[in-house]
């Protein structure tokens, strides 16, 4: 099955709402419409920027999508500081990142919470981009494949096969995030293929074939082409390089097979 590549720009805790408007405009107008037939592009700004980005995307009927970096596992109520899947859905968010290693590390998110967040996203019709990935010591012990597969299966616990089809998976080795140390495309392919095999074993080949698996970790315009050439890599979750409009547009155009805008 042909899977449409997805390039997702995770802005992390960068850019206020005015800067968000400027960057969104830059990306949308750098990438002519024809590219969007070959690659899906989403920005993932901080919560406070989302309303501005939504207004811009709706008003100008942009093909660019947008989403959030986290959500609450709850629907509503006394959860100070949290944002629900229903709120994100109402704002037209297509995607939400779940289980990013920075949230696992700095907010002590465990597999159970990640699973509840995946379910909350699906319940409200927002596609979760579920992140898995190993720390350097796990890779050095040669246990990266098993580690990532375990994170994947735990995060999907209790879901039906048809729900799993609506999940995007992102393999982000922790040692490659923000370090400039990109995994080789063969290393990335190894884990992405193993994740797809784990999905096939548990949910069947059809579901496994339909799920998009992204790579994330120091992706830029210089390495995207090699990564998306890999059989099981269907795009990228991009951090640093998504904050530069020219660089991100170039990266998206290359993922679409070019030419550069
Ligand atoms: O964490 C990432 C995306 O979610 C990757 O970040 P960098 O692209 O900055 O390495």
UniProtKB/TrEMBL annotation:
Family matches, as SUPFAM superfamilies: Triosephosphate isomerase (TIM) (SSF51351)
Catalysis: reaction(s): D-glyceraldehyde 3-phosphate = dihydroxyacetone phosphate
EC code: 5.3.1.1
Keyword Cytoplasm: yes
Residues at the active site: 100, 172
Pfam families assigned: TIM (PF00121)
A single Gene Ontology CC term: cytosol
A biological-process GO annotation: glyceraldehyde-3-phosphate biosynthetic process
Isomerase listed as a keyword: yes
CDD domains: TIM
GO molecular function: triose-phosphate isomerase activity
Subcellular location: Cytoplasm
Function: Involved in the gluconeogenesis. Catalyzes stereospecifically the conversion of dihydroxyacetone phosphate (DHAP) to D-glyceraldehyde-3-phosphate (G3P).
Domain of life: Bacteria
Pathway(s) this gene product operates in, as recorded in its UniProt entry: Carbohydrate biosynthesis; gluconeogenesis; Carbohydrate degradation; glycolysis; D-glyceraldehyde 3-phosphate from glycerone phosphate: step 1/1
Protein family membership: Belongs to the triosephosphate isomerase family.
Descriptive protein name: Triosephosphate isomerase
Binding of substrate, residues: 10-12, 178, 218, 239-240
Gene3D superfamilies, A to Z: Aldolase class I
Assembly information from the UniProt record: Homodimer.
Keywords of this entry: Cytoplasm, Gluconeogenesis, Glycolysis, Isomerase
């Amino acid at each position: 099955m042909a899977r449409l590549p997805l390039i997702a720009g995770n802005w992390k805790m960068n850019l206020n709402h005015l800067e968000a408007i400027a960057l969104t405009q830059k990306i949308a107008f750098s990438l002519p419409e024809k590219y969007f037939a070959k690659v899906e592009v989403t920005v993932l700004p901080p919560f406070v920027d989302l309303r501005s980005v939504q207004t811009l995307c709706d008003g100008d009927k942009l093909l660019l999508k947008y989403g959030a970096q986290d959500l609450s596992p709850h629907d509503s109520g006394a959860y100070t500081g949290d944002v629900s899947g229903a709120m994100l859905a109402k704002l037209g968010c297509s995607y939400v990142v779940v289980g990013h290693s920075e949230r696992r590390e700095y907010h002590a998110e465990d597999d159970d919470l990640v699973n509840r967040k995946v379910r909350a996203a699906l319940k409200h019709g927002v596609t979760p981009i579920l992140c898995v990935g190993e720390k350097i010591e796990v890779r050095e012990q040669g246990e990266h494949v098993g580690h990532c597969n375990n994170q994947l299966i735990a995060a999907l616990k209790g879901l039906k096969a048809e729900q799993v089809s609506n999940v995007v998976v992102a393999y982000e080795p922790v040692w490659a995030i923000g370090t400039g140390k990109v995994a080789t495309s063969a290393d990335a392919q190894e884990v992405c293929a193993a994740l797809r095999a784990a999905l096939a074993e548990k949910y069947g080949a059809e579901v496994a074939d339909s799920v998009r698996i992204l790579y994330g970790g120091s992706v830029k315009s210089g390495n995207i082409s090699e990564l998306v050439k890999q059989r099981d890599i269907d795009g990228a979750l991009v951090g640093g390089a998504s904050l530069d409009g020219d660089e991100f547009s170039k990266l998206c155009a290359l993922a679409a097979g070019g030419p550069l805008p």
